[in-house]
Amino acid sequence: MAIDIGIAKKDRESIARNLSKLLADTYSLYLKTHSFHWNITGPMFNTLHQMFEVQYTELWTSADVIAERIRALDVYAPGSYTQFGKLTSIVEETGVPDWKAMVQQLVDGHETVARTAREVFKVADKVDDQPTADLATQRMNDHEKTAWMLRSLLK
Asked: 93 burial class (0-12, 13-18, 19+ CB within 10 angstroms)?
């Protein structure tokens, strides 16, 4: 059945490509945050273990929202590690850094996702896709706030 939501197919596909990058960044940051939650040690253990749990839970939830928006645009959402690996801008961590390096990597990750969301907003705004623009605005707000909170731990 054809979709007719007032956004041309080529524009929906362009938005979905950008949302797919946002989804990949979100999922990759989720995975990194969850790994750090599992592997944190040292004097900041309790604080960061709890903080990372809140953060990875929020990232998990937001990944679903992003994927569902892609589907609402009648495009299939990426859903494999291979696809995410090709799309993400998040730098993978295969080791277990100390708590300060973990926090710094998460600051960098949240700033990266905020930049990706900003690109989604630009594409959506050009074609009056308010639901996607709203989603991107919310993601920017959440990632910028989280980056600020994490950055504050390093002062």
From this structure: middle
Residue matched to tokens 């040690």: 41
Q: How many domains are contained in the chain?
A: 1
Whether residue 2 is predicted with pLDDT greater than 90 in this model: the reply is no
Residue 4: inside a domain: no
Residue 49 domain boundaries:
9-153
* Amino acid 1: pLDDT: 77
Structure tokens belonging to residue 27 = 């999922």
The mean pLDDT of 111-122, rounded to a whole number, is 98
User: Strands (DSSP E) along 7-78, which ranges?
Assistant: none
Residue 3 belongs to some domain of the structure: no
Q: Which of 94, 96, 117, 124 has the alpha carbon at shortest distance from 26? A: 117
